[in-house]
Amino acid sequence: MNFLFYSFLFIFGICWGSFANVLIDRIQAGKSIQGRSKCDYCGYVLNWFDNIPIISFLAIKGRCRKCNKKLSWQYPWVEFLTGLIFVLTFWLIQKNQIFQANSFSFETFLVLIYYFLIIYILWVIFVWDLKYMIIPDFLILIGLIGTFIFKIYLTFNSGFILNLENPLISALLGGIIISGFFGFLFYVSRGKWIGGGDVKIGFWLGVIVGFQMTYFFILFSYVLGAIVAIILLLFFKQKMKSQIPFGPFLIISAYVIIFNKEIILKIWNNLLV
Ligand SMILES: [Zn+2]
Questions:
Q1: Residue 46 CA, ligand 1 centroid: distance in Å
Q2: Computed from CA positions of residues 235, 237, 239, 240, in that sequence, does the dihedral angle turn out positive or negative?
Q3: What is the pTM of this model?
């Protein structure tokens, strides 16, 4: 059952990965997301058998059927990784007992939808920022609305107590602190140290991780960014001046915190004692 379920989830994720590719490239190019896919070079309209994720790409050896030009490896990679992320996310949700397979109800179903929605949007932003160095506002907005609804639900579910543990208050403070911090960096550096998109997504991610985790969120993002920057400078002869998008580090940092909050706080408290 488990293996079958995870295989199904993996394929389901691959299909969503295929949609992510369409969403990113077409919206960025100002095209409609409806209609059939075409070759970027010659305009060849893809058949249904050209549209099977990963398999079609491998079958045509990554080249267009008509003009034989090389197609981007982004397509199969994003599809494959989306499949993996879906599997990993479900596994983490179960491990954290956010959702238990034997207590399935409408409520747990909604919670599950929420987590998959925000993780999927974050992943689309991850690829988008990596490729085009842009974080689209509409995705942040959809994610932010979803997260606020979820936090309101959590707040009323936990009996609305007015303190910092209140999910809604914690979320709001988290968003204000992180976007405030990034906004300050943006202002003093005139956009050199951090992008405007990072300030905006910082608000959403702050709302997700909450007030208690803001410190760890910023710490993880910068440590991760520094490690990757050093690797790029040392091994890939990347120039100091070349820009690296910051969004992906923020997203990885948030992902780690979402599913490891208790462990992080426990380690931190042990360090303080
Ligand atoms: Zn072509």
A1: 10
A2: positive
A3: 0.94
